[in-house]
UniProtKB/TrEMBL annotation:
GO terms for cellular component: cytoplasm; nucleus. The keyword Lyase applies. The record marks 356, 409, 432 as: Electron transfer via tryptophanyl radical. Transmembrane segments: none annotated. Binds 1 FAD per subunit. The keyword Flavoprotein applies. GO terms for biological process: circadian regulation of gene expression; entrainment of circadian clock by photoperiod; nucleobase-containing compound metabolic process; response to stress. Residues 2-140 form the Photolyase/cryptochrome alpha/beta domain. This is DNA photolyase, FAD-binding/Cryptochrome. Keywords: Chromophore, FAD, Flavoprotein, Lyase. Its cofactor is (6R)-5,10-methylene-5,6,7,8-tetrahydrofolate; FAD.
């Protein structure tokens, strides 16, 4: 007999992992071994637009986890199931009986497909006498726990965030870290039944159809493992920024001088909106894959803030950062409470029928970073090369696709998922719907980003643009933000850089008209 912890691609760690801790406690109580299971599901990855980089990152972290599990005598059983819909039945009727599993523990995934799969697993389990237990772990505060005074779910971020911080100040258990499982008895390795599990199912080098084309760059920029994630967090909180990280370098590439007063978090209020320096934590790939937990991050932030209230507000860098981290909980709550958002539907249903353009050329120019709008092109090229973008330029490039090119936000959402190493349905969908004015943003649709103003604000000297768009490397002053309108035509032509593919003013008017007259056709 055994207890199984079913690890998912959002909880790739050993520390502070609720399902793993509970599975371990259950195994100890019953006096039977614990086994960790990981199911590779290419069908799921395809249907959910998973980036090859993300799948490679998952496998790398899984190898890291396996090395740690080996040390505590816990076998990691890795399986590939091609047909995603067959997973519940196969697990319950084939795998779990083979492993002698009496209890199975997993952390809840809040996406609709995953919830359906997990409910089916519970149902089949009941028929076969296998206890399948799901627990909250992904978020710091589980969905349904942040409510208005009237006991209703909230969809506007600011009041939601205040209520979230209050829950955390009042209910400290949400910040309590889970015990690290002690592991199995060493004798398990000599056990005729379980011993062979240690070698039986190796982690594949890659998943068919998801071989990463740029694994060397990804491995350099985003090294795997909880130890790395903790170091990234530590440097963000306590050390002086290194050379600009908008470049293609590892977050740990240089020595770090301890200086909490001048650390990135200390300057986050200003820094978070600038893309020309190393300003944000770059923890998103690690948080999205659960290599580090939200609790670990918030406990570190509290320690940095000398244990103060989590609602310390926007008047300190760390207070501001905690509010950003809270967005992760927020968008997951939105997805869990209004599941239509994870099924491609707008949060604000009245915008289901905006008239979108169909323009393959424009879509491709956007993806390739060849729109003639330097900040958008820089961001899109960074995304293509590094699998990651700063928050401000995610908003700017998303807004450009939706409001300037008038292309359906779902096309952009899909492209980001296919490129990002931190691709996460709730955060990505939330970000896109926010920008497309179809989501939870209380601002009306007619607040439209001005790409040029945004560019001058977030990259004042143009360093970010010059790095990612080499055609503009020699431009000085304002020309770098808008070369087409700042240079004689013949000089501009020599750059080899595209002309703007839309006129900002006209496209703004088109967007206003289309949103105002939603449901009508021109
Ligand atoms: P920091 O500023 O250091 O913030 C710390 C952590 O807080 C982040 O790692 C992230 O986990 C969380 N966080 C911060 N801002 C947000 C936010 N707006 N929404 C949700 N979580 C947030 N984030 C993803 O993790 N995956 C995505 O696929 C993703 N897609 C996005 C798409 C669009 C169109 C937009 C506008 C935003 C998207 N974001 C996404 C949110 C945000 O841009 C990134 O989390 C952030 O840029 C990551 O950088 P960081 O780790 O240095 O962030």
């Amino acid at each position: 007999r055994s207890v199984v912890y079913w690890m998912r691609m959002e909880d790739l760690r050993i520390e502070d992992n609720t399902a793993f801790a509970q599975a371990s406690a259950c195994a100890k109580q019953l006096g039977i071994p614990i086994i960790v299971l990981f199911v590779i599901s290419p069908g799921d990855y395809r249907i959910h637009d998973r980036a090859k980089r993300k799948i490679d990152f998952v496998l790398r972290n899984l190898r890291w986890v396996k090395a740690k599990l080996d040390k505590i005598n816990i076998p990691l059983h890795v399986l590939t199931y091609e047909k995603r819909l067959s997973i519940p039945k196969k697990l319950i009727t084939e795998l779990f009986p083979q492993l002698g599993a009496t209890h199975v523990f997993a952390n809840i995934e809040y996406e609709v497909d995953e919830l359906r799969r997990d409910i089916a697993t519970v149902r089949f389990g009941q028929e076969k006498g296998i206890d399948v237990v799901y627990v909250h772990d992904r978020l710091v505060v589980p969905p349904g726990k942040v409510l208005s005074k009237q006991g209703k779910p909230m969809s506007v971020y600011s009041p939601w965030q205040r209520a979230w911080a209050k829950v955390l100040d009042e209910q400290k258990e949400f910040l309590r870290m889970q015990d690290v499982p002690p592991g199995n008895d060493k004798s398990l390795r000599d056990d005729p039944e379980f011993g062979k599990l240690f070698e039986a199912t190796p982690i594949p080098d890659f998943v068919d159809g998801f071989k990463c084309d740029d694994e060397d760059v990804m491995r350099e920029c985003w090294p795997e493992g909880t130890d790395v994630a903790k170091e990234v967090l530590h440097r963000f909180l306590y050390t002086k920024p290194r050379k600009p990280q908008f470049q293609l370098v590892s977050p740990l590439s240089e020595g770090a001088e301890e200086d909490a007063k001048n650390s990135r978090v200390a300057k986050y209020q200003v820094g978070r909106n600038l893309v020309d320096a190393d300003n944000s934590s770059k923890l998103s790939p690690y948080l999205a894959a659960g290599v580090i937990s939200g609790r670990m991050v918030l406990n570190a932030a509290r320690k940095f803030g000398k244990g103060g209230k989590l609602d310390s507000g926007r008047d300190t860098g760390v207070g501001m950062w905690v509010q950003e981290v809270a967005w992760r909980d927020f968008y997951n709550h939105v997805m869990a409470i209004w599941p239509r958002v994870s099924m491609g539907r707008p949060f604000l249903e009245k915008f289901a029928d905006v008239q979108w353009e169909v323009n393959e050329k424009h879509l491709q120019a956007w993806k390739d970073g060849k729109t003639g709008f330097p900040i958008v092109d820089a961001a899109m090229r960074a995304c293509a090369k590094r699998g990651w973008m700063e928050n401000r330029v995610r908003m700017v490039s998303a807004s450009f696709l939706v409001k300037s090119l008038m292309l359906d936000w779902r096309l952009g959402e899909k492209h980001f998922m296919e490129c990002f190493i931190d691709g996460d349905l709730a955060a990505n969908n939330g970000g896109w719907q926010w920008t497309a004015s179809t989501g939870t943003d209380p601002q009306p649709y007619f607040r439209i980003f001005n790409t040029l103003t945004q560019s001058e604000k977030c990259d004042p000297n143009g360093d970010y643009i010059r790095y990612w768009v080499p055609e503009l490397r020699n431009l000085k002053g304002k020309a770098v933000h808008d070369p087409y309108h700042h240079m004689p035509r013949n000089e501009f032509k020599k750059l080899g850089y595209p002309e703007p593919i839309v006129d900002h003013k006209q496209s703004r008017e088109r967007a206003l008209f289309r949103y105002k007259n939603v449901g009508e056709r021109e």
